[in-house]
């Protein structure tokens, strides 16, 4: 068994796929860093991300997959499902070994699992477009904190760039400790340590615009006013807005004045 250690990026994983074929490794397992203890007694192969190698793998797959099938690989990778790298590698092996398109062969476990991972990421990215709630800081930066199950920031950046083209904003993924920042021209990836749990009124008063508390209260009041109690369907509500998102939704957070 060979443990393939890469940097966690999609390009890094593609480079790893190239080198598995290059060095003719047989049984492999992937790890994002060398501290992984999943395999204690095995050979280790360290991968340096090489865009030329990654592009060669992409070009080979693009010739054998439809446009949607090609993009599904990236979506599946971003799902971060358990052992998704191994699943995708088996999928790639199947693609490259077949003379026909295998995208609809759901009798194959790798094809089926890639489809499930892709759907999970797609659903999560769609929800994030609706569940991002911005707050305005004193230096006119709109920021939002999210904690999606899948790594969807790369998939939603164009949506927010087009929708909020006239304001600076930052969407921070508290789970993965990085964010996407728009400076009125370009979107860039930023890595930062940010205390996403700092929700006290004192903390908010220090960083937020003076009118932010007022606007958040307006939004909560609006949300309450359009909520018809007699038509309340909690089960359906949770289905469309799962509880794991509530901690970062303004309308689900008690009024700032009630915080200690």
UniProtKB/TrEMBL annotation:
Residues 83-251 form the DUF4130 domain. InterPro entries: DNA_repair_put, DUF4130. Pfam families: DUF4130. This is DNA metabolism protein.
